[in-house]
Each structure stands twice: as structure tokens, then as C-alpha cells.
Design a protein that fits this description.
The protein has helices at about 30-45, 50-65, 70-80, 90-100, 105-115, 125-135, 140-155, 160-175, 175-190, 195-210, 215-220, 230-245, 245-260, 265-280, 285-295, 305-315, 320-330, 340-350, 355-365, 375-385, 390-405, 410-420, 425-430. It is an all-alpha fold.
């Protein structure tokens, strides 16, 4: 969905030109890195005329010279608050729209994030995801990563595990270590199609090359050594983005602090950030906080609080939060006595296309736990779990379907899919 942004007024800045030129030719421009460095230096001492003038030159190159890379750089100065002393996301969004229109993938990616979060522009999740798709086409690794996450979980777009895996692989090739890990996981779990060991190994090698310690261990290579300066810069970047209310950055910062990256003294702050982020509507933070409280990881175990945070995440349409909520309810000394709450959580998870939730509902319907025995419902739940890639449910759905008189071709297809996904029982059972 397109958006209309009003152009910002910026002070024209003289640009050095060749004799006889009018400043519109790219050949007339100074090297961008020199201008960007000058702006960084000018803004280092805080807002003021020098900073405004230097950033205005970048804006001029973006709007008038139509130099796409200038747009994202100028936008960064505005959304970090360096120009006026506080973030100006509206101006940043206008510059990013120009850059995206000039086919700059990074600009499309950043503008998409603003639209999804509703910061600086009207909230438009569908439009933001469309911009991520465009940014990925233009080789923005971050855009590919963000799009892949939405496709994998069916948030704002139809769930498409095949496309999600492909986008994670592309983001990995473009330099995203975290994307490499997700690509490996999807191959190992046969999510998005049969697993490809060669592709999984290549993604793991690439992730290790990019400094991912877990993937280095997976391929038998030494863990990379991250310099304290590099780690400090990474955390400072997350802090700055979190102050601009970029919820994804807040979530990553919260997770790093809760994991003790700055020592025990910052762990509590990490969990506090998770709670703030969850209240702001970032469902993954609700999930992480809820799990930590349920399991007692780096924080005192508190099942009641954990259930509440997981319920918040489930309400925010985080499928895994719904599944974890159902499992936490089963552990609860009083809430666990009422199967209805667990069934409701599993139903929410299944509605969000979580295959494990669907499979557990199938078991409940077949066994009569929390609901009346209903083989037809059990078949439907397991069939959906099978379609989501849960191998064992394919065999169960085939068994139930055959007993219910489903078309033999449908039963055969489910057994074949279960076998392809690695279910031994589906492979051993002859098709009708």
C-alpha cells in the first residue's frame, strides 16, 4: 500500500560543480563518504548550525541530485535526533521514501519498519511488509530478514514456509548472521520443504564467517573473538535505536542484557525492557519474558507472572506464546485443573498456524481431553499440522482419514507427505 508524504523544507546548500554545470549531474558531486564523514564530525558536538548545514547538504543530494544512498544517511541523522536534539522520524520517513523511490533497498527496508511500527508515519503493516519485499528485491539483507520472519509465522501475510526459508537464505548471503541460523534451523526441521544438508552446511559456514558463535560450533570451528569495542558499538547502536522506539532493537537489547552481556548488574534492566516492550505491543518480548519467569532463567521463577506475560504475547498473535501458555497452564497448580484454558490457548495457537498447537488439539479431540471425543475434528487438526510440516501428524491424519472414509488419494497424499518429512510410520504404512 503506497503512502503519500509531504516533502520537508530544507535549506539549499551550494554544491561544488564543474564549470558550466548546474549541480544536477552526479559527476559534480563530492564523494559521498567524504560528505557523510563531514556531517558526522559536524554533528559530533550536538545540534547546531554546523550540524544542520552538513545534514542539509546530504538532503540536497537526496532530493535534488537524486543520489539514493544520501537519503538513508540523511534519514539516520534525523531519526537519531542529532540534528535537532530529538528524533524527527517524520522527516526521516520523507527522506527514506525518496530513497526507496530511487531503488535503494536500505531506504525501503527502514521505511517499512517505520510503517509497521507506526513511527513517523501512519501505522500500515501491510504497506510496511510490501516495502520489505521491495527492499529484499533490491538486496537489502535486513528487509529479507524481516520479510522472512513474517512469512514464517504468517503475521500480516499468508504463512509461506518455503518463501520464508528462501528469504532467510538470501539474507544470510547478504551478510546477516542471524538469518543464517534461521536458515539452518528450517533445513534441519524440514520446515519449508525437505531439508537440504548441503544448503544447511553452507548457511552454517556463512554464519560462522559472519561471526555467529553457535554456527561456528556447529561446523566445528573456533568461536569468533569479538573485540570489546565492537561489542560496545553494537550495544550502543541498539540503545540508540531503542530510544527511537524501534521495538525490534529494544527486544534485542533486552535479550542481550538479560543474558548478562554487561554483567549481573544489568540483568534486571534487561527484563524491565522486556516488560516495557511487551506493553508497547512487541509480542516476542512478551514470549521471552514469560518463558524466563516460567523456567526461572536468570530471574526468580514465578509461574503466575509467566502465564500473564505469555497470555499477553498470545493476545498479540504470537503463535509460540500461545503454545507456551498452554504448556505453562498445565504446570499451574490451580489453572491446570481447568482444561478449557489450555484448549483455548492451543486453539489460538492453531488459528495462528502453529502446527504443534494443532497436533495437541488433535490429540485432545481424539482422546476426549477438555472436549468431547470427535474423530472428525481430530482429523482436521492433524491435517492442518501435517500441512504445517509436522511429520507425525501426517501419519495420524492419514490413519484417522482412512477410518472416517476420506478419499484414498487424500489419505495416500498425507502418508506420502509424512514420509517425505521423515515420519517412519508413514513410510512403513502402505497407501490404500
Amino acid at each position: 500500500m503506497a503512502i503519500t508524504l509531504v516533502a520537508a523544507c530544507s535549506r539549499p546548500v551550494p554544491v561544488a560543480v564543474k564549470k558550466g554545470g548546474d549541480g544536477s549531474s552526479p559527476a559534480a558531486l563530492q564523494p559521498l563518504d567524504r560528505v557523510a564523514t563531514a556531517a558526522t564530525t559536524a554533528c559530533a558536538d550536538g545540534p547546531g548550525p554546523r550540524c544542520e548545514s552538513a545534514v542539509a547538504e546530504l538532503e540536497h543530494r537526496c532530493r535534488i541530485q537524486r543520489e539514493k544512498a544520501s537519503c538513508s544517511i540523511a534519514a539516520d541523522f534525523h531519526d537519531s535526533g542529532q540534528v535537532t536534539g530529538r528524533p524527527d522520524l517524520a522527516t526521516a520517513a520523507r527522506l527514506l521514501e525518496v530513497g526507496c523511490g530511487l531503488d535503494d533497498g536500505s531506504a525501503c527496508s527502514d521505511l517499512g519498519l517505520l510503517m509497521v511500527n507506526g513511527t513517523g508515519v501512519a501505522k500500515d503493516e501491510i504497506g510496511g511488509i510490501a516495502l520489505w519485499r521491495r527492499g529484499c528485491e533490491l538486496d537489502s539483507g535486513i528487509a529479507c530478514f524481516n520479510l522472512a520472519g513474517r512469512l514464517r509465522h504468517g503475521r500480516g501475510v499468508p504463512r509461506d514456509s518455503v518463501a520464508a526459508r528462501a528469504q532467510f537464505e538470501k539474507a544470510c548471503r547478504l551478510g546477516g548472521a542471524e538469518a543464517c541460523q534461521y536458515a539452518v534451523e528450517m533445513h534441519v526441521d524440514r520446515e519449508g520443504g525437505p531439508g537440504d544438508r548441503v544448503a544447511a552446511r553452507a548457511a552454517a559456514q556463512r554464519g560462522c564467517d559472519l561471526g555467529h558463535p553457535v554456527l561456528c560450533e556447529a561446523v566445528g570451528r573456533p568461536r569468533p573473538v569479538v573485540s570489546p569495542d565492537a561489542e560496545a558499538r553494537w550495544l550502543a547502536g541498539l540503545e540508540a535505536s531503542c530510544r527511537r522506539q524501534v521495538l525490534m532493537a529494544c527486544a534485542r537489547l533486552a535479550g542481550a542484557l538479560a543474558d548478562g552481556i554487561r554483567g549481573p548488574g544489568e540483568v534486571a534492566r534487561g527484563f524491565e525492557l522486556m516488560s516495557i516492550n511487551c506493553h508497547a505491543g512487541y509480542a516476542t518480548s512478551c514470549l521471552n519474558l514469560g518463558l524466563a519467569l516460567v523456567r526461572g532463567v536468570r530471574v526468580a521463577a514465578d509461574l503466575d507472572k509467566g502465564v500473564r506475560w505469555l497470555a499477553r504475547g498470545c493476545d498479540l498473535l504470537q503463535a509460540q506464546a500461545c503454545l507456551e501458555l498452554a504448556q505453562a497452564l498445565q504446570q499451574h497448580p490451580t489453572l491446570g485443573k481447568d482444561p478449557a484454558a489450555t484448549i483455548n490457548a492451543l486453539t489460538a495457537g492453531c488459528d495462528l498456524n502453529d502446527e504443534t498447537s494443532c497436533a495437541l488439539l488433535g490429540q485432545a479431540a481424539e482422546q476426549g481431553w477438555g472436549m468431547t471425543v470427535a474423530p472428525a475434528r481430530a482429523f482436521a487438526f492433524h491435517q492442518k499440522a501435517c500441512q504445517g510440516g509436522l511429520a507425525k501428524s501426517c501419519g495420524t491424519a492419514a490413519r484417522l482419514g482412512a477410518a472416517l472414509g476420506a478419499p484414498p488419494s487424500e489419505v495416500s497424499d498425507m502418508r506420502r507427505r509424512g514420509c517425505d518429512l521423515g515420519d517412519p510410520a508413514s513410510c512403513a504404512t502402505p497407501s490404500p
